[in-house]
Write a structure and sequence with these properties.
Blueprint lengths: L1 E8 L6 E7 L9 E4 H7 L32 H13 L4 H31 L1
C-alpha cells in the first residue's frame, strides 16, 4: 500500500484526517480514502511513517488538527471578527443558503444532466 494524498474531513467533530491509499496489486482507480487513525492502528505503520522535524510517531496529537473557537478570543476581538465576517456577507443567512444549496446540489445537477440528455436525444 502507498499513501498518495491526504485531507481533513470537516464533516466530523473533531475533523478526521483521511488518507488516499493506493492498494498494492490494485488498479489505480481502486484507490480509496481511509481514516488515518484506523489505518495506522489496523496496519503496523509505526516504522513506515515519516513525520517532519523528527516527530514522535507515538504522539498521535501530531496527527490531529488544532481547533480554535471564537470563544477563546477576547470579547473585543470576537466583536471585531464578527464585524469582519458580516461585512463580507458571512452570516446566518449565508449559512442557511449554503446548507440548502448543498442539500439540493445533486438533484439540480441531475436535472441539468437530464435536460442535456433530452436535448441531445431530440437532435
Amino acid at each position: 500500500m502507498s499513501i498518495v494524498d491526504w485531507k481533513w474531513d470537516f464533516s466530523t467533530s473533531p475533523p478526521t484526517k483521511l488518507v488516499l491509499v493506493r492498494w498494492e496489486g490494485a488498479a489505480p482507480e481502486d484507490t480509496t480514502w481511509e481514516d488515518w487513525e484506523q489505518l495506522w492502528t489496523s496496519y503496523d505503520l509505526e516504522d513506515k511513517v515519516f513525520l517532519p522535524d523528527g516527530g514522535d510517531v507515538n504522539n498521535l496529537e501530531l496527527n490531529r488538527p488544532k481547533i480554535y473557537s471564537t470563544r477563546d478570543l477576547k470579547a473585543k476581538v470576537q466583536e471585531k471578527f464578527y464585524e469582519y465576517l458580516d461585512v463580507r456577507g458571512v452570516n446566518n443567512e449565508l449559512a442557511v443558503f449554503l446548507h440548502e444549496y448543498m442539500m439540493n446540489k445533486d438533484r439540480i445537477e441531475l436535472l441539468r444532466w437530464m435536460d442535456s440528455l433530452k436535448s441531445f436525444m431530440e437532435r
